[in-house]
Design goal:
Layout lengths: L1 H31 L6 H19 L1 H26 L5 H23 L14 E4 L2 E4 H23 L1 H11 L1 H6 L4 H23 L11 H5 L3 H7 L4 H20 L11 H16 L14
Antiparallel strand pairs: 1-2
Helix pairs in contact: 1-5, 1-8, 1-11, 2-3, 2-4, 2-8, 3-8, 5-6, 6-8, 10-11, 10-12, 11-12
Length: 296
């Protein structure tokens, strides 16, 4: 029972970090229809900035600067896509993000090298004991921060002018434009928000028990991709639910690896993708994705 409780808590913590990343995928897709494959590189960039600055300016300012610069970089990618390839098809813009990812990841991998970069977070390797249950403080912090940030995101999405504009643009871009909504600004803000969320997620992906930020952190971040697909690419609520499902699945598969050895040594790595495939076989649009209707 103790192991199960610890595994569930680890799964919730992992799911909360995945939710920050998956929301970025969904926000960009809702605003511009683009599947952003450069999201992992944006995450690594934000984490790298935080790791380099925390000794100089402190942890929280470094996180804020990392999130701000990741937001700016994401905005520049959006401007490149919208103005450099004006009128291009959506799939062309998606391919563009693959090219951007290759460029960014190559340079960031060169900068990071073979080292593990510490994030300077105040939790370190501390743990909290609840009776016989032991939980890393970084895990608890990730859940608390994710709840606050995601709550603020949904409040803005529901009640702010930007949220209203984005929901209108996602429902019917042409009608939204005719109503005076500036689609370019809505999309730019969406990309910036996604970049900032990715940078924040990098802090917790690199926190204890992980050894630190390294070149594979961006690849780990892509583990959130099944969460966005599972929930439905056009649903923010779906991204949240999908993240929790994928996080719990990954934690359970890793925690009970010995009991699942008959399925192979690397089963925990593929378990989230297996869940995604099984759900998509039943619901091709994901758990909360909208079905596309065509009038004839």
């Amino acid at each position: 029972m103790i192991k199960l409780t610890e595994t569930v808590l680890n799964g919730l913590a992992l799911g909360s970090v995945y939710a920050l990343i998956a929301l970025g995928f969904v926000v960009i897709f809702k605003a511009s229809g683009v599947m952003n494959f450069a999201h992992g590189s944006l995450l690594l960039f934000g984490g790298y900035v935080t790791a380099r600055l925390h000794d100089t300016i402190g942890f929280i300012p470094a996180v804020l600067v990392g999130a701000a610069l990741a937001a700016v970089l994401a905005g520049l990618v959006q401007l490149l896509a919208s103005r450099g390839l004006r009128g291009a098809e959506i799939h062309t813009l998606t391919i563009l993000t693959i090219g951007v990812d290759v460029l960014l990841s190559t340079e960031l991998n060169r900068q990071v090298g073979a080292d593990y970069l510490t994030m300077g977070d105040p939790w370190g390797a501390d743990v909290t004991r609840l009776g016989s249950i032991t939980v890393a403080d970084a895990r608890i912090a990730s859940i608390v921060v994710a709840v606050i940030v995601i709550g603020a995101f949904f409040a803005a999405f529901r009640w702010s002018r930007w949220g209203l504009s984005m929901r209108s643009a996602a429902a019917d871009p042409e009608a939204a434009a005719l109503m005076g909504i500036r689609l370019g600004r809505v999309r730019l803000i969406a990309w910036c928000v996604a970049g900032a969320l990715a940078a924040l997620a990098a802090v917790f992906l690199a926190a204890f028990p992980a050894p630190g930020l390294d070149r594979t952190t961006s690849q780990i971040a892509l583990s959130a991709f099944p969460a966005a697909i599972l929930g439905g690419m056009d649903s923010a609520v779906g991204a949240l639910v999908g993240s929790l499902v994928i996080g719990l699945t990954a934690a359970m598969a890793a925690g009970y690896q010995s009991e699942l050895s008959v399925l192979g040594a690397g089963f925990s790595d593929v378990a989230p993708y297996l869940v995604m495939v099984l759900v998509l076989l039943v619901r091709p649009t994901g758990l909360f994705g909208s079905k596309e209707l065509t009038r004839v």
